[in-house]
Amino acid sequence: MDLTKITLPTFILERRSFLEMLADFLAHPEEFVNVTDHQTPRDRFIQVVKWYLSAFHAGRKSAVPKKPYNPILGETFQCLYDIGSSSSSNETVAKDGPVPWASDSNVTFIAEQTSHHPPIASFYAECPAKHIQIDGCLWTKSKFLGLSVAVHMIGDATLTLLDHDERYVITFPSAYGRSILGVPWFEMGGKVTIDCEKTGYTANIEFLTKPFYNGKKHQIIGTLFGPDKKEFCKIDGEWNGVMNAKYSDTKVSEVFFDTKKTAVIKKIVRPIAEQSEYESRRLWKDVTYYLKSKQMNKATASKSFLEQRQREEAKDRADKTLKWQTKNFTESGELKWTYENKL
Hints:
The protein is an alpha+beta fold and about 350 residues long. It has helices at about 20, 30-35, 40-55, 280-285, 285-290, 295-320, and strands spanning about 15, 65-70, 75-80, 105-115, 120-125, 130-145, 150-160, 165-170, 175-180, 185-195, 200-210, 220-225, 230-240, 240-245, 255-260, 330-335, 335-340. It contains six helices and 17 strands. The strands form three sheets. Strands 3, 4, 5, 6, 7, 8, 9, 10, 11, 12, 13, 14 and 15 form a 13-stranded antiparallel sheet that branches. Strands 1-2 form a two-stranded parallel sheet. Strands 16-17 form a two-stranded antiparallel sheet.
């Protein structure tokens, strides 16, 4: 059964939209911008892998699996990360970027629900001062697996370093909610890749699901290959704990990333009163308020109101044979949208 087709009980909802959850990939924005500081293609590639693996723990604040709100068509989410950079570009405001009131040295993020069937979220982030950007489109397919729920992430993202003309194409693992009738818990699973066509560097990373008997939770193993297709680095550990790297050519072993010792940078979002009607936190504010105050019936009614309005608008467009117009992203292929004002 496909979970996107059914309305889930309100009490298992996480109090935020899937669009906001995507912004958690930048919860360590310094790891993101640091990619540009490395001199060699190999070091830049290692840093891309480090940034990617640093991101997963930030979105999972609760041990119990919760499901974010399914975004409404046309919904948007904007935020910025202040990385405390004291460069002179601090004064420059990036007026035509994803967050017009941010400075050039901030990392800014925007996401928009660009399609309803399938439910696709398009997203884009940049740091103008560092000439780095990432954009992508993702949607989820969910399935019941007896006592667990699998959520597969479909789509990819491309991280671009403008100064080097390098593009890193990244895929994403699946998520699993286990023992949903008992004490639910969450894990990631599946194989992902990071590829840079220009330099020839690739990484194969596997998020290991816990074996039925014994075995540890949240393990990953990763292998990094050079342009000669030879392995030069092995990564293992926990994606929400400590990850270690071992380099085959130098025999050096080191802590690759420690999620416990690295602070998550909080995203900065405009107050709800200043947001437009279709921005995530404003759009879902009633549902969030009622969930927080444990008024489940009112939360369900508020959620149903938004979903019903979306259905009526879709029917109205179908009757008039009107195509949905996106706000910040333009169609760039089948089931793909690209941010209009990239760096």
